[in-house]
Amino acid sequence: MKKSQWLSALLLSLSCQLTTAQKLDPTFSPSILRGSGAFLCLVQPDNKLLVTTNSNHFLNDVPVRRFFRLHENGAIDESFQYAAELNSPPRTAQLQDDGKIVVGGKFYDEEGTFLGNMLRLWPDGSLDTAFQTYIDEAFDLTEMKVLPNQKIFTAGYVNTDTGLVYSVFLAAEDGGMDAHFPKIDFTGDRPDRNVHIADLDFQSVNELIVAGSNLQVGDKTHDILRLDSLGVPDVDFNPFFQSVSNFRIRNIGVLPDGTIGILAGDHSNITIVNRDGLTRATYQLSNNRSILHPAGDNSFYIFGEKFYQVFADGLSIGFPDLTANGLIYGMAVQTDDQVVLAGTFSNIGGTFKPGLLRLTPGELGDSPEIDDS
Fold first, then answer.
1. Which tens digits make up the pLDDT trace of 114-132?
2. Measured distance CA(198)–CA(251) in Å, rounded
3. What's this model's pTM, rounded to 2 decimal places?
4. Is 194 exposed, middle or buried (CB count within 10 Å of its CB: 0-12, 13-18, 19+)?
5. CB neighbours of 173 closer than 8 A, spacing ≥ 6?
6. Could you tell me if 303 and 331 are in contact, meaning their C-beta atoms sit under 8 angstroms apart?
7. How does pLDDT run across 266-322, given as a tens digit for each residue?
């Protein structure tokens, strides 16, 4: 079959799979009018949105604290009030099945007293005092994932005189340390081997993914590790990445079948591997400060200065009308493929959208860009 015929047949066969092109949702219009923007965005099962900012702000001229909740349409949900004891925003947050919210970072009260690194909030935002708080003021808790069994997979670092020491550990549903999963430390020496954990995810409760750089286990150094529920690394799991000049994993995402999307380099290099780490597709998409997020069963969104959707079979769609003038830090997908973005932008595609916006599926875009290498 000629190449042109093959491409046409491939496009036809995929036409039913392609997510429709995204467009701005004019009905969703929260505006962060003061401060630097939004960072974390987390969607609840009822489509309400939890959002963080780095300081207290005004949203549509209404004062809000550092962590607030929006109704599905973007209006403030006044039934949620961030715990009065906390004067620090979450750096990361995850939902448990019962609606409680686990938050991570470094938390202080109004007087500057350190309260802990991992806390839990009730669905109304108040502090759950029954949760066993993780407390280590030297530790910066940066990443967490709530697993299907409700255990909490967590990462962070301590800054020492000789370099950063990153750690991963597993906490029980109530916050206590999992006795069967030993805390694992990854140490680097400045300036030769800087260690970094960029993101966590999971394929199952017994397949925990750690992504970063220079993560040493035994005599081997990895950028992505797969651990079992006892913290034992899978020595046969070692994904191969594109060779890039400024290699550093930025973030990852996992599809329902275990396929992993990896964003690396200058936020422009994407590698998609199957659940065992074998490469399925690679992309190099010019972009700035982008993030990767699963989009359905067979693709990922890449949103930054430019917007893309990339597929595990080598196709990509660009959304040329959606370009940001700032940075995107968080995203969440509501039902019906509505995508909410949080960041420091004020303009998307020529439309004033400070800090928060929602994209909704529109008409099918132009023909996808083809990776025919």
1. 999 999 999 999 999 999 9
2. 6
3. 0.89
4. middle
5. 96, 149, 150, 151, 152
6. yes
7. 778 899 999 999 999 999 887 877 899 999 899 999 998 889 999 999 999 998 888
